[in-house]
Every structure is written in C-alpha cells, then in structure tokens.
Amino acid sequence: MLTIIMPILVVASLCGVDGARAHAGDITEAPAFNTLLDSLIREGNEKMVQDGGAATIFGDVTTSLSHRYDMQDDQGQQLGVVHVDAIKGDKSPWGGHSYLGVYHAYIGNEFQVRLASSPDLMSWTFRRTLVSNADMPYLYRVDKGTDGWLLLAHEQWMTPGSQAPSQLGFKLYYNEANLLAGNHFNGFNAPLTVGQPTSIEGTPCVYYAARRMQNNLVVVDADIGFHFNDQDGIDQVAQGRLTSFGPSVIDPSWGGTQRSDNYDQMFIDKGAVGNIGQRAPGTIQGVHIQLQEANIGPMPPTVWKDWRVWLYYFGSGEGDVPEGSGGAHVDMVQVKTHQGSTAFGNPSWHHVPCPGGGGGNCVFVSYFIFSEGAAGGEAGVLGFVKQL
C-alpha cells in the first residue's frame, strides 16, 4: 500500500490539493489530480502484479486453494481447454452447482464442444454436447455479471473426423437455460481469411463484445483473436471483427482480419519460436494482461516438451485488442507444479467467487501439461484455484 499512498500525497501537493486533507470531495474537484492518481494507481498495480503477483497467481500451483491434475468430467473425458464461469441464474437445473464450464473432448473419431457444471471447480458433471466436430471453445458473457446473452466462439472442423479445413464458429444463447438446453438462437461459421493457404483457422478468444441496435433488433459486435497456420504449419496469431451477430434475420459480417505480427514478435524476441496459439485476455488486480502459449523449440515439427506459457502486459496506448505497442511487454510464466512439470499450453483463466460459499474473489486457472514435459501423475488438464 505504501507504494500507492506515498505518491498520492506528492501528487496532491503538485495539483494544489493539501495532501493532509485530501479526501473524495477534493479529488472529485481536481481533474488533474484524478488523471495523475489514476495513472499512479494503475502503474502501482501493474508493478505489484509484475513483481510477484502474476507469477504467484498464474505460476505457483503449490499455493493454490485447490487443484487437480488430469482433470476429467464424470464420464472420464478430459476437460480440454476448459473455460469456466460462475452460474448467475437459477442453479437448480444445474443440480445446485455454482459453476459451468465449456471444454472439448475427443469422442469416437472427432472432437466435441461440451458443457459441464461443478460445485467446486474440481469435480465436473457432464451436461450435454453443444457442438459436434468442434473444439477450442471460449465463452463470453455479453451481458456481464447477469444471466443474459452468451457468445460461444469455437473452432469448427468442416470435414468429418475433425479434419481440415477448420473455421471460426460462433453461437449465441439468450441465457444459461438456453445454454444448458443446447438451444442457440443463431450460429455462424466465418469464412477463411489469413489462414486460407493452409485451411486452418481456430482457437478463438473474445477480446470484447457488446450489444447495439440495428433495424430495431439487438445485435452483437465482437473483437476476436484467433490463430492460423502459416505456410510451414506453425501457429500464428490474428484478429478480426464479428459484427451484426444477432437474430437470424440479419446476416452477420466477418471482417477486419489481419495478422498480429507485432504481437507475435514480442514473444519471438523473448525466445519463442512458433506455435503462438491459444490466448486468454483479461484484467487482474487492475492490470490488463493476456496469457499466451508459445513454443521455444526448433520448428517444424512441434517439440511438445518445449511448450511454455507467457504473460503479455498491455501497453498504455492499447485498447481491447493487443497490438504489441504502447509500452507492452512480455514475460514467461515460471509454472511450479507439485512434482516439477515443465511443458504447458492451452492457458485459460477466469474470475470466479471462491468455492465453498465463504465469500471472496478467486481466479480459476487451467493449463494442459504435455506428457513429454510432465512429471509423474501430472499429465493432462491441470485446473487450480487461487484467492485474490
């Protein structure tokens, strides 16, 4: 706290506000003070996160409230790239559970996007298959904090058996009840763009999405991150914009797609070689970050033991979409497991109420531990909960 309080007193003096009597009313009446104060608090939060907070939150599994290696649902299926959230509406249809999760599993000869629920973020009950021949799901609440519209982004395979081409797929649900019933009110598969030469695009994330009115109907616009395979078959990051996605009487649009070369270069400069693929954006302790997987081994082919997870800190000049500019920087996350695994990918995280009903804010984090870099008993999906 001293790193924030002490600068406040200095800035108060500079702005003509007596630091000894600065209070909410004084601050409200001093725009220059507000601007500098916001900057100092943001910089102080970022420094605290960089100096150990992020390393502890995303890196030290051994200090978690709870954890599970080789996380599976009650059918014995792996919770691949699980993306979780707290249930906001009626919990009774979910068996009284407090959390929901979307994930993928390989069933028969193809992937499925599936839905499960959990009382504690560790044990999971399968509820239904949401999308067949699809994987890499990402769930985003358009109506934040409420049981409202849900945007599901995923990777859609266009050939049976989860074979190329793969395209970005999107589904819209009115609420959690519709999600549980598997009833989306519109779906859209985006055409290939930057990944057209290799017919591979996928692993989406939603940087931001919001409603607006169009022709007296509500539609959603969303900034999307995704990966594509380059001519050597190596994952690279790209971005695009989904617009006018709503009732099926309106045709959605997909455009603004471009490679995120400046963003990728920041990881390359830190030692990444390729497979800059799945990413998970958000804000933690007031700092805008993104977890990112990337490989440090010579490629191609992929060396599975060389997967690592990194933290991207957004620059002050960046918006919701990372551009590799404005003072952004990258650090590798040194993940510490109980037995010493070293190869991690498929990062996912989300703010949730802490399990157990005791209150408090927590973050659920998930990685995939590749068997080539896994210590005994730790291969597969890792999920853990950290209190903030």
Describe this entry's structure for a reader.
The protein has 388 residues and is α+β, with helices and mostly antiparallel strands. Helices cover 16% and strands 43% of the residues. It has a four-stranded antiparallel β-sheet, with no helix packed on it. The protein has a four-stranded antiparallel β-sheet with strand order 2-3-4-5. Strands 6-7-8-9 form a four-stranded antiparallel β-sheet. Helix 1 runs antiparallel to helix 3. Mean pLDDT is 89; it is low at 1-41.
Instruction: Give me the count of strands.
Output: 20
Rounded to the nearest angstrom, the radius of gyration is 21 Å
Strand residue percentage: 35-45%
Strand order, main sheet: write it out.
1-20-19-18
Oligomerization: single chain
Average of the residue pLDDT scores: 89
| Elements, N to C (H/E) | HHHEEEEEEEEHEEEEEHEEEEEEE
Which spans have pLDDT < 50 for at least 5 consecutive residues? 1-41
Molecular shape: globular
Largest sheet: 4 strands, antiparallel
Content-based structural category = alpha+beta
Q: Helix coverage percent of residues? A: 10-25%
Span from first to last CA? 15 Å
Number of distinct helices = 5
